[in-house]
């Protein structure tokens, strides 16, 4: 194993983590402000990817496709918030889990009904399609590098939004004391719709970005959704900072685990058994990480006790 | 008898009556469906103890369902191949006897529930939902990638396991067996609900501080409830595997956890017979909606949404009205 | 679950005099959820043959297994117990086949596999009533190994998902591949990001990559591989390059070699007619899954012409003879009722706006599977 390979894997872990952050930021925000657990977040991710693929196929422009993903996901988000989600804020978590589980069923099969059963095509823009050479001679896909940068920019934007703007003040106030900010004359219903649509837009954006290097298909949201849950539980539910740290932690753990564990077992087992055992353990690793974090910090790394 | 009791009684009568009718009319598949409903009901009754009475929203109960299933699969596959499971430190052989398999399934899933519960119950609320989900996923991926017992292919058993004095391959006899177990567990659950333990558990859900102040430990109450709950769901898993003569990681998937929860919500949360009615309705829906459209999940989703939003008490709630104020 | 299509073709009255018992076929396949594309292709191929045959002694019941083994088992029970079918077919996935086939054949039903060919059913677990019309799971991978030898590849990096079919795939490749292995990796089932694996490929010093990543996994891998700048030749089985998903991969798949027992340019009359009528009927090009469904139906008809399904021994012998015009050209069953057939090497090309495959070589001729010897039948 060379240093270069290790650095490349670190970059891969970072990129995966950044993607997870885009997905988790909305989830944790919605939970923090509205106290809502939303299983249908993965469906919004899927909607973003499908909208992007459809628009890219029609116009050929990746930028338009990205904008379409933002628009479609935030619209879908606002729509379900207005019709369904807002009835769930006062309900217990069980109702929220079930109602949003029902939404997954509707969105998944509805999308299949609209777009058919085969995966759609969405490709990276030509300008970013090849690899770039980084200092030290590492060849790294330009698109993945872009994802890292875009993700970090979104993270900075989120911090600025929460900490520096009027909307951010309201969001933070909403997390702290719902009744009070309503009493102070903030239109809490509008604020909630906005926050939910914002979270949806982030998820849809992530779906479009990732869709370009993965497969745009029905059911693509659920595996990511579960990872996003792991992220926000590790980070502490409701904390954007926690989501960021948790996402990077999960991204790096997963990538490096997949890379290193089979090699480590190779030292003590014969090769094919090592690959098998190492891969099995690697696929469980992030859940083990989560269990360990929760044993020591039952409210996550940055959760409010 | 209250209206709820009548509803419960009617539910059991329908569940027992339909297969009897099917037996006379020679429709063995209807009996298989009823067996499926009875087993799902049992899994739901298990979860309902944690969820309805204890307020513990576990999204990882498929883990116990699957562990029960694998207990059956592993024991029976060893017996089928005449290969002992372990020869050291002492000889452990596989078995095709249902009572032994059930015992192993109950113990294995109870132990798993003890380990998962002990860690998960340190958290509460959404954290609890998510950590149970994560533990479920952990076991799911383990089952897929562990090659010894079939991995994703699962394990097939050629002949259903035996029960002394019964021909379990006969659909009606196997249904009878599952039905009797379901009734037995329902009786047990009623006793648990009305016991000091059940009342304390229910109290811990409603007001933790008060329970603490009378000197009881909510953590322990919940852990015991979680273990019993997991064990019952595990027993259901063993029966389900025997119904299909097959076990695979699908039984461990998080969608399975979701489905078990759906049975409860359709029937009515916290009601003793909620999962029984819910499982029956679910099987019926799967059957009728599935005939209407390839995209029947859309309708299932819409229906579920409607129940959650507008008919909180589920079927029993709609028929019997609000729960009487015993808690 | 009850997507039922009962097909009773118009009566051809003259033959009615010597009426044989009708054959009832139960098709259990995946029509909803993630893997629906494959099941729909098998169904459409099968039903196209049914339509063309215009038989009045056939009834087909089709149901959706949702890719869930327990649902498939329930459906098989239903078809055997309630519908009283004579022949079962349709299952796409190996794990579902393993759940359904042993029980169904043990109850005296015929099972014709239009897709899955798990190794236990070819070897120790073979059964006189089980016929595989597609391939044994290892076949396409073996052909890829043989092709790699022919192409002068010496050092392959191989990867597959960590589940039984993935292990079979790599075993199959290694069985005939004569070179070294630069690396061997098992990925998580359903994994969508392959950056870590591609980095290892880059660092491994391999001269070629063999991968078995069916469905969405393959799409993700190919796109990411193309973007990574690693330009080692790729070889794969047809599953990542079938007509259904090729359009979703796009340019990233161009030029990739893949192995298949069928392609639309196999030169025989049956195939030409199949490709043309399939396109006319459904408005899309057929995939290899559709070809397998089509062959399955025609195999069944050839047996029905020769024997009565009630006479199991005669019907079995008629199936074994496999006297039908396969769209693959030559087709025969080995002693374990798995195909002996040519497996081709294809290359992904672009025809107009459409990505498709072209045969460039024959990987293995008259190839049988490696488990036949274990089958005591």
Keywords:
heterotrimer, A: 305 residues, mainly alpha, two-stranded antiparallel sheet, 11 helices, 2 strands, 75% helix, 3% strand, globular, B: 327 residues, two-stranded antiparallel ribbon, 13 helices, 1% strand
Question: Would you summarize the structure shown here?
Answer:
The complex is a heterotrimer of chains A (about 300), B (about 325) and C (about 375). Chain B is an all-alpha fold. Helices cover about 70% and strands about 0% of the residues of chain B.
Distance between the termini of chain B: 19 Å
The chain-level mean pLDDT of chain B equals 88
N-to-C series of helices and strands of chain C: EHEHEHEHEHEHEHEHEHEHHHEEE
Question: What would the principal axes of the Cα set say about the shape of chain B?
Answer: globular
Could you say which structural class the secondary elements and strand pairing of chain B correspond to? mainly alpha
Termini separation of chain C (Å)?
35 Å
Protein described:
The complex is a heterotrimer of chains A (about 300), B (about 325) and C (about 375). Chain A has helices at about 5-35, 40-60, 60-85, 95-115, 140-165, 165-175, 180-185, 190-210, 220-235, 240-265, 270-295, and strands at about 130-135, 140. Chain A has 11 helices and 2 strands, in the order H-H-H-H-E-E-H-H-H-H-H-H-H. Chain A has one domain (about 5-235). Chain A is about 75% helix and about 5% strand. Chain B is mostly helical. Chain B has a domain at about 30-255. Chain B is built from 13 helices and 2 strands. In chain B, helix 3 (about 60-80) packs across helix 9. Chain C has 2 domains: about 15-115 and about 265-325, Rossmann fold; about 140-265 and about 345-375, Response regulator (Rossmann fold). Chain C contains 12 helices and 13 strands. In chain C, the strands form 2 sheets. In chain C, strands 6, 7, 8, 9, 10, 11, 12 and 13 form an 8-stranded mixed sheet that branches. In chain C, strands 2-1-3-4-5 form a 5-stranded parallel sheet, sandwiched between helices. In chain C, helix 2 packs parallel to helix 3 and helix 11 crosses helix 12 (about 310-320). The longest helix of chain C is centred in the C-terminal third of the chain and has 19 residues, at about 290-305. Chain C is globular. The interface between A and C is large, with 51 and 41 residues.
């Amino acid at each position: 194993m060379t240093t270069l390979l290790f650095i490349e894997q670190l970059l891969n872990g970072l990129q995966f983590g950044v993607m997870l952050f885009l997905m988790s930021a909305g989830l944790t925000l919605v939970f923090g402000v509205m106290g809502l657990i939303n299983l249908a977040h993965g469906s919004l991710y899927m909607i973003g990817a499908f909208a992007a693929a459809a628009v890219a196929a029609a116009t050929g422009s990746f930028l338009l496709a990205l904008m379409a993903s933002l628009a479609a996901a935030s619209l879908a988000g606002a729509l379900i918030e207005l019709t369904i989600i807002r009835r769930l804020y006062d309900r217990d978590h069980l109702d929220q889990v079930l109602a949003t589980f029902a939404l997954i069923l509707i969105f998944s099969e509805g999308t299949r009904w609209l777009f058919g059963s085969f995966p759609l095509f969405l490709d990276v823009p030509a300008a970013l399609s090849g690899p770039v050479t980084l200092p030290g001679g590492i060849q790294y896909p330009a698109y993945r590098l872009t994802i890292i940068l875009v993700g970090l920019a979104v993270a900075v934007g989120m911090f600025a939004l929460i900490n520096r703007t009027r909307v951010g003040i309201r969001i933070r106030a909403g997390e702290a004391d719902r009744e009070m900010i309503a009493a102070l004359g903030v239109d809490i219903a509008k604020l909630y719709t906005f926050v939910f649509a914002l979270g949806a837009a982030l998820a849809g954006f992530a779906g479009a970005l990732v869709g370009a290097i993965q497969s745009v298909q029905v059911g693509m949201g659920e595996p990511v959704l579960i990872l996003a849950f792991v992220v926000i539980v590790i980070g502490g539910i409701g904390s954007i900072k926690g989501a960021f740290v948790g996402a990077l932690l999960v991204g790096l753990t997963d990538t490096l685990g997949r890379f290193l564990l089979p090699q480590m077992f190779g030292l003590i087992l014969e090769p094919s058994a090592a690959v098998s055992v190492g891969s099995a353990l690697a696929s469980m690793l992030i859940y083990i990480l989560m269990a360990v974090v929760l044993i020591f910090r039952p409210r996550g790394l940055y959760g409010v006790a | 008898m209250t209206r709820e009791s009548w509803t419960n009684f009617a539910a059991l009568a329908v569940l027992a009556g339909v297969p009897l009718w099917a037996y006379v009319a020679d429709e063995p598949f209807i009996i298989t469906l009823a067996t499926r409903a009875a087993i799902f009901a049992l899994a739901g009754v298990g979860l309902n103890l944690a969820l309805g009475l204890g307020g513990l929203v576990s999204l990882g109960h498929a883990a116990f369902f699957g562990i029960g299933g694998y207990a059956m699969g592993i024991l029976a596959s060893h017996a089928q191949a005449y290969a002992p499971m372990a020869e050291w430190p002492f000889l452990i052989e596989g078995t095709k006897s249902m009572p032994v398999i059930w015992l192993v399934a109950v113990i294995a899933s109870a132990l798993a529930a003890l380990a998962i519960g002990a860690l998960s119950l340190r958290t509460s609320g959404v954290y609890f939902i998510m950590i149970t989900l994560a533990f479920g996923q952990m076991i799911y991926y383990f089952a897929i990638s562990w090659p010894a017992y079939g991995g994703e292919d699962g394990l097939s058993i050629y002949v259903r396991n035996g029960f002394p004095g019964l021909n379990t391959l006969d659909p009606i006899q196997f249904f009878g067996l599952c039905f009797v177990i379901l009734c037995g567990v329902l009786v047990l659950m009623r006793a648990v609900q009305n016991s000091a333990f059940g009342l304390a558990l229910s109290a811990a859900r409603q007001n933790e501080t008060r329970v603490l102040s009378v000197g009881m430990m909510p953590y322990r109450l919940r852990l015991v409830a979680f273990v019993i709950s997991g064990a019952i769901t595990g027993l259901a898993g063993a029966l389900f595997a025997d119904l299909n003569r097959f076990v695979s990681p699908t039984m461990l998937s998080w969608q399975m956890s979701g489905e078990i929860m759906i049975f409860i919500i359709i029937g009515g949360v916290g009601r003793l017979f909620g999962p029984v009615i819910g499982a029956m309705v679910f099987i019926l829906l799967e059957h009728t909606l599935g005939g209407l459209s390839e995209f029947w999940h859309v309708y299932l989703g819409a229906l579920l949404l409607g129940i959650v939003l507008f008919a909180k008490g589920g079927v029993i709630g709609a028929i019997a009205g609000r729960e009487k104020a015993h808690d | 679950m009850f997507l039922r299509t009962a097909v009773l073709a118009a009566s051809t009255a003259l033959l009615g005099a010597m009426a044989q018992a009708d054959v009832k076929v139960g098709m259990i396949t995946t029509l909803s959820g993630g893997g629906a594309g494959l099941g729909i292709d098998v169904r459409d191929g099968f039903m196209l043959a049914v339509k063309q045959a215009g038989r009045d002694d056939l009834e087909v019941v089709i149901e959706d297994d949702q890719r869930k083994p327990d649902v498939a088992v329930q459906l098989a029970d239903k078809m055997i117990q309630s519908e009283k079918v004579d022949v079962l077919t349709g299952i796409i996935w190996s794990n579902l086949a393993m759940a359904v086939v042993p029980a169904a054949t043990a109850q005296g039903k015929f099972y014709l596999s239009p897709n899955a060919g798990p190794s236990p059913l070819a070897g120790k677990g073979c059964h006189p009533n089980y016929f595989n019309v597609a391939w044994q799971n290892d076949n396409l991978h073996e052909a890829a190994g043989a092709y790699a030898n022919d192409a002068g590849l010496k050092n392959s990096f191989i990867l597959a998902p960590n589940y039984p079919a993935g292990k079979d795939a790599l075993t199959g490749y290694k069985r005939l591949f004569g070179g070294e292995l630069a690396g061997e990796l098992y990925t998580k089932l359903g994994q969508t990001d392959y950056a870590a694996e591609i980095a290892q490929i880059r660092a491994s010093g391999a001269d070629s990559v063999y991968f078995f990543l069916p469905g969405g996994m393959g799409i993700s891998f190919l796109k990411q591989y193309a973007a990574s700048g690693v330009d080692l030749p790729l070889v794969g089985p047809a599953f990542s390059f079938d007509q259904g998903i090729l359009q979703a991969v796009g340019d990233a798949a161009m030029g990739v070699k893949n192995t298949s027992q069928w392609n639309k340019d196999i030169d025989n009359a049956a195939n030409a007619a199949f490709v043309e009528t399939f396109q006319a009927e459904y408005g899309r090009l057929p995939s290899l899954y559709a070809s397998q469904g089509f062959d399955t139906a025609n195999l069944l008809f050839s047996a029905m012409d020769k024997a009565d399904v009630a006479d199991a021994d005669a019907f079995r012998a008629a199936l074994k003879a496999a006297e039908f015009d396969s769209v693959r050209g030559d087709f025969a069953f080995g002693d374990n009722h798995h195909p002996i057939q040519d497996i081709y090497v294809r290359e992904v090309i672009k025809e107009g706006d459409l990505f498709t495959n072209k045969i460039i070589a024959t990987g293995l001729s008259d190839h049988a599977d490696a488990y036949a010897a274990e089958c005591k039948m």
